[in-house]
Amino acid sequence: MEEPEVHPDLEHIAFLLGRWEGAGVGGYPTIESFNFGQEIEFGHNGKPFLSYVSRTWLLDDAGDRVKPLAMESGYWRPQPDRQIEVVLAHPTGVVEVYVGEVVFHKIELQTDVVARTASAKEYTAGHRLYGLVNGNLMWAYEMAAVGHPLTDHMSAELKKVA
């Protein structure tokens, strides 16, 4: 089957399409700092949204994979006037709806809705920044959780691999 054409509504976020891999750093007041590897894949089926899957794993000091960390999946939905909605689900029992804006190759998102299952850890808000810098996808994530306000949590630099 032939790859469908990219929907015209995706024009300003089409730079995200493909598979990205790289590494980053994480930490939070309640945990020790850590290094992680990551793979993100943005896809499309010809409709006006991107599908999204992210996988991370803990890296040791040599850069080798130690164990799986977080996963998330969802959809990136461009809106008029360069606005964007992102819907994400996590296997930890959290669902997030982000709203934000696309300015050239920079996307800034903040949570509009956070829903948690009864067994999920307390998580109340997130703020994400994505940008294309010298051909690499850079991102940073702040979260408000377990009694802390929005605080730096993770950031990474990813290279396009497919």
From TrEMBL:
Pathway: Nitrogen metabolism. One of its GO terms (molecular function) is peroxynitrite isomerase activity. The keyword Secreted does not apply. Transmembrane segments: none annotated. Keywords: Heme, Iron, Isomerase, Metal-binding. It holds the Pfam family THAP4_heme-bd. Its cofactor is heme b. A motif (GXWXGXG) lies at residues 18-24. Residues 10-160 form the THAP4-like heme-binding domain. Binds 1 heme b group per subunit, that coordinates a highly solvent-exposed Fe(III) atom. Heme b binds at residues 30, 121, 153. Its EC number is 5.99.-.-. It catalyses: peroxynitrite = nitrate. InterPro entries: Calycin, Nb(III)_bact/plant, Nitrobindin, THAP4-like_heme-bd. Forms a 10-stranded antiparallel beta-barrel structure able to accommodate a hydrophobic ligand in its interior. In fact, this fold hosts the heme group, which is located in a wide surface cleft. Belongs to the nitrobindin family. Heme-binding protein able to scavenge peroxynitrite and to protect free L-tyrosine against peroxynitrite-mediated nitration, by acting as a peroxynitrite isomerase that converts peroxynitrite to nitrate. Therefore, this protein likely plays a role in peroxynitrite sensing and in the detoxification of reactive nitrogen and oxygen species (RNS and ROS, respectively). Is able to bind nitric oxide (NO) in vitro, but may act as a sensor of peroxynitrite levels in vivo. This is Peroxynitrite isomerase.
